[in-house]
Amino acid sequence: LVGSEMCIRDRMRNYDKILMTGAQGTGKTTLLKALQNEPEFDNWKFYTNVVRTMVEEEGITINEEGTSESQKKIFDKYTQIMEDAMKQPSISDRCIIDVNAYTSWLFDNCSPKDPEYNNLAEEDFKEKRQIVKRKYEFPLLVYLPITFRLQGDEVRSEDEEYQKEIDRKIKQIVDNYGIPYISVSGSTEERVQQIKDAVFGKKED
User: Fold this and answer.
1) Is 154 exposed, middle or buried (0-12, 13-18, 19+ CB in 10 A)?
2) pLDDT score recorded for residue 4
3) Helices H / strands E in the chain, number of each
4) Cα gap 125→159, rounded to integer Å
5) pLDDT at 7 over 70
6) Dist. CA 64–CA 58, nearest whole Å
């Protein structure tokens, strides 16, 4: 074990719910789309591009320009997804841990003189409390570390230092609260196989 990280062989088998976590641009959506093409996941529900849809349809602000109100909306949305995910086999390319990492960054970088300071402090506290409350409800949590250069997509921030800080926040949350997770790396194909091994059990050669 390294912090809360567990080797695949140390985890229980037959997971039927997966939540991904990782900073922007680490390949979560690409990985989810690859899993959609795997026959083992034919009857699973997939949650993706949730924040992007909220930006386009609701006009919320995210990244370094996020607000306490936008973070609350996103956190509530992923809380609902987490609850819905308990009803059927499913995969989400983000979760409430990611949301709190961004909220926490906004709070850390907000001046006490800013009107948003108290709002962000309150939202950060509420989100952390919910994560602690739900720590035993997490299904298979898959962490994607930063392994390649950040690519812009007109929605995510292109600031690599910001990406690294979000990644650090995510690791702090899972390690500080003792939330078990597996870390996947390598090519998309290798990551897919690592998840399949965790969910269905590693096939013997």
Assistant:
1) exposed
2) 55
3) 7, 5
4) 26
5) no
6) 18
